[in-house]
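Why do we care about 3D structure at all? Because function follows from shape, and shape follows, mostly, from sequence. That is the central idea of this module. The next example makes it concrete: a single protein chain, its amino acid sequence, and then its structure expressed as tokens.
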Amino acid sequence: MKDEISIDRYNRLINHGPVILVTTARKGKPNAMALAWYSPMSKEPPLIGVFLDKENYTHRLVMETGELVLNLPPRDLIREVYFCGSVSGKDVDKFAETGLHADAPSIVRPPLVRECIGHIEAEVVTSYEAGDHTLFVVKPLLCLVERALFDEVWDTTNPAARGLYHLGASFFMSGGPRVEVNLNERVDWKRF
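And the structure:
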């Protein structure tokens, strides 16, 4: 079960920088794209920067609809994430090919990816040209998380909460357990 969290904590869902699945929809057909180029931009108002290549099908759908969902996949979805980043939704039904499930959103039209552990439903506020990409400034409207995997931050002591990090080409890595820092003690990294 996923619980709503305060939008002012949206950046805590994505500060750790994992690859996400951006979902869009056109005429009822869902699309998912793997993306590593995004960033929290502002806490007040809450804003996220999403960079999309102007040639991508997802770019066209975001331009047309002004809506998207940022889905946070666990590391177990590595093959599905890689597939969604390797083919175009213009040519392939990525949900059918990967076996991912499209769940109904609460506010926007693009679906949530059921297998993901967190979601941010968002709308485009503005956009800027950024070379061969467009920077879409998006506003989170609703944030959902798997409650068992998120308290104040992702509980990465549980491997199911560890995200994927794209290193380039077909290379990925996954994070380790979270470490709480005490300024009066040194962190013993050998423990992790």
